[in-house]
Every structure is written in structure tokens, then in C-alpha cells.
């Protein structure tokens, strides 16, 4: 059914997030790099063997990825489309699965040379929370990465994506500002987009207060957060705010047609499937007409003048075509683009470097691209 159900949803909060509606608060900021950091890149990845055959919807799935998916399925949570947003936020996440796999297989948690602190900032209609990850290197100033988590704008929080923020800060030597934008259905479109831009603008105007270099600020995000990263860069350009130094978009939501090649091929994939998309869309959008808004359908937006952009895609992902389409559109608009597609892995693999080799490679690739943009 071609109803422009908009993949906007994706970033499924590592699929089924155990989280609160407004993201992590300050009480968790100082300890965030503990358990959830377990997902980030490490040099001691162990070989993992799945319990059964590869699923019919992903015969090419890598064994380590399959172990994570098997663990996620073992929790027996109800499918997201059968739940309310509040209920869905209590489901297990791929983050939980990775942490349990590590415990069961004796995989050590990586240690990050990063400090965290919380910061609340005013936005239109309220406040949002930022978690600031600062490398413990005693530099006088650092480049900054403004990071947007996934979750379909409905579920997920800073903790669910803590590993990604930690590894980016630790490995790039840059400050990462992770943004707890407000979630739907409590806050409908375009609140998340407005919050994302407000957070970026706050960083531009207040970089020195967090030891950031105001001339070197990138935006990054996963899935729904990848959409926010690109949309924020567009808004900055149009608002005459400093354009970001670079964009990192990991399997970004980029358009609203759910009949793309990858949507058809991987419509039953996990942790993100087509049925979930309709649920996310109903929760986030005020009407289906908004699916064509260029903030959501990025492939129809004016992309000229955007900074160097890196796009990371997963093979076993309904959003694979989205990522490929936005790469083509960015190139056509004259933007410098670099991209990689990782075979045998699913949506949400980024940040699982402790157990999935492809994820570790993707993290290292993202870090290298950001460091190049920062001139590091």
C-alpha cells in the first residue's frame, strides 16, 4: 500500500527502546559510559556462533549479527505496532541484546577516555536535555559533533545510543553533544526537527562554554537522527547560521515511499520492518501530507551548499535504498559525498563494534571521515 508511510520512523531506537519519553536526564549523564558503552568498538571481538540457521528474510546475515538478533528475539516482546508509545519505550532494545551477548560470552567492555555531563537548554515551548561527552585529554579546545539518536521520533533515548556517542568522542578526540529532542506522539512533527536545529544553534553560539571550537562543528545521527542531521544542516544554510563542517548520516531516513527496492526486499527484517514504519508515522506526523515535507523527504530538498557528507548503510535494512538515494541526490547537488554499505548486517548495527566486526569497521570509517573534515 503506497501511502507514503515514510521511513521517517526508522532509527527504531535500536528497534524497541527501553526508554523514557523525553530522553535521558542529568542523573544518568555522569554514569552513561558504563553499561551502554559496552556496544562500542573494541579490539577483542570474539567469534560468535548463532544458535540456528539464518532467517529467511536475511540468508546473508553475518553470524555475529545473527547472535544479536537471536538474543533480541529471545526476550519475547510484543511487536511495536501492537503497543502504545509508552509501552514500546519499555521493550528491550538491540542495545540490551548486545550487552547480554557480551555478558554471556565474556566479552570485556571497552573503556572510554571520556567524561560526560548534562545540560538543559531552552527551546520553543520548553527545554531539552543535552549530554556532553568530552575527551579527557586536557586540550584547550575541541571540535564538536552534534549527535542525534534514532528512534523514529517516538522511542529511544540518549542511553540507547550511548555507545555511538562514546566511540565518536573517544576515537575522534572531539566533543560529542547528544541531543534528547522531544518525542512523538507527545510532540508531533516538526518538533523534533526544530529541537535538533535549536540544539545545533546553541552549540554554535555557546561552543566556548563546553571547550568547543566554534569553527569546527559537525552534525551526525542514526536513522531518524540521520534525517535530523541532514535537515539541520539545510536549516543552518537557509537561516544563515554557520553551516556544519561535516555531516555523518548512518542509514538515514531520506524519503517517504515505502515501495523502494530495499523496502520490498527487507520488509520483514528485524529490528526494523515495514509494519513498524506505519506505526511510527501515525505517531509522529499530524497528517500524511507531511510525508512530502522536504525536512522528511530529503531527496526533494535543496541540497546545494551542504558540507562534505558521509553516509553509512546496512544491507539488511528497509532504509538501504534511502541511503543510496540521498547519496545520489547529494552528488547531483555538487556536495562532496563518501559512502559505504556494509553487507550481512541489519539496521542498528552501528555502535555494536564490541561484537559485530562490520560495526567496528563502520565506526572506524566514521571516525576517519570526521577527523578528515576537522583537519585532525
From TrEMBL:
Organism superkingdom: Bacteria
Keyword Signal found: yes
Sorted UniProt keywords: Hydrolase, Signal
Cleaved signal peptide residues: 1-18
Gene Ontology MF terms: hydrolase activity
Boundaries of every Alpha/beta hydrolase fold-3 domain copy: 145-350
SUPFAM superfamilies: alpha/beta-Hydrolases
PANTHER family reported for this sequence: AB HYDROLASE SUPERFAMILY PROTEIN C4A8.06C, ALPHA_BETA HYDROLASE FOLD-3 DOMAIN-CONTAINING PROTEIN-RELATED
Name of the protein this chain belongs to: Alpha/beta hydrolase
Amino acid at each position: 500500500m503506497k501511502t507514503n508511510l515514510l521511513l521517517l520512523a526508522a532509527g527504531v531506537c535500536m528497534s524497541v527502546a527501553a526508554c523514557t519519553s523525553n530522553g535521558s536526564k542529568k542523573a544518568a549523564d555522569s554514569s552513561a559510559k558504563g553499561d551502554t558503552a559496552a556496544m562500542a568498538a573494541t579490539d577483542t571481538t570474539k567469534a560468535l556462533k548463532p544458535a540456528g540457521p539464518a532467517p529467511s528474510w536475511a540468508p546473508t546475515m553475518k553470524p555475529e549479527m545473527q547472535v544479536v538478533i537471536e538474543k533480541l528475539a529471545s526476550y519475547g516482546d510484543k511487536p511495536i505496532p501492537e503497543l502504545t508509545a509508552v509501552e514500546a519505550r519499555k521493550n528491550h532494545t538491540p542495545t540490551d541484546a548486545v550487552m547480554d551477548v557480551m555478558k554471556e560470552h565474556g566479552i570485556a567492555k571497552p573503556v572510554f577516555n571520556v567524561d560526560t555531563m548534562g545540560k538543559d537548554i531552552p527551546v520553543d515551548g520548553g527545554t531539552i536535555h543535552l549530554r556532553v561527552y568530552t575527551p579527557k585529554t586536557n586540550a584547550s579546545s575541541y571540535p564538536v559533533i552534534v549527535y542525534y539518536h534514532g528512534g523514529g521520533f517516538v522511542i529511544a533515548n540518549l542511553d540507547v545510543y550511548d555507545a555511538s556517542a562514546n566511540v565518536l568522542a573517544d576515537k575522534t578526540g572531539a566533543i560529542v553533544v547528544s541531543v534528547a529532542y522531544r518525542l512523538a506522539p507527545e510532540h508531533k512533527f516538526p518538533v523534533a526537527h526544530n529541537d535538533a536545529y535549536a540544539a545545533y544553534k546553541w552549540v554554535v553560539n555557546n561552543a566556548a562554554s563546553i571547550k568547543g571550537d566554534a569553527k569546527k562543528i559537525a552534525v551526525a545521527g542514526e536513522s531518524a537522527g540521520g534525517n535530523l542531521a541532514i535537515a539541520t544542516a539545510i536549516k543552518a544554510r537557509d537561516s544563515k547560521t554557520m553551516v556544519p563542517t561535516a555531516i555523518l548520516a548512518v542509514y538515514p531516513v531520506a524519503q517517504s515511499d515505502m515501495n523502494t527496492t530495499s523496502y520490498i526486499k527487507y520488509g520483514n527484517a528485524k529490528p526494523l520492518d515495514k509494519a513498524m514504519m506505519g506505526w511510527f508515522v501515525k505517531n509522529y506526523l499530524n497528517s500524511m501530507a507531511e510525508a512530502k515535507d522536504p525536512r522528511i523527504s530529503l531527496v526533494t530538498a535543496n541540497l546545494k551548499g551542504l558540507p562534505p557528507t558521509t553516509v553509512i548503510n546496512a544491507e539488511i535494512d528497509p532504509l538501504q535504498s534511502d541511503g543510496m538515494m540521498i547519496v545520489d541526490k547529494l552528488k547531483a547537488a555538487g556536495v562532496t559525498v563518501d559512502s559505504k554499505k556494509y553487507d550481512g548486517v541489519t539496521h542498528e548495527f552501528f555502535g555494536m563494534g564490541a561484537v559485530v566486526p562490520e560495526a567496528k569497521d563502520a565506526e572506524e570509517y566514521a571516525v576517519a571521515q570526521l577527523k578528515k573534515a576537522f583537519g585532525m
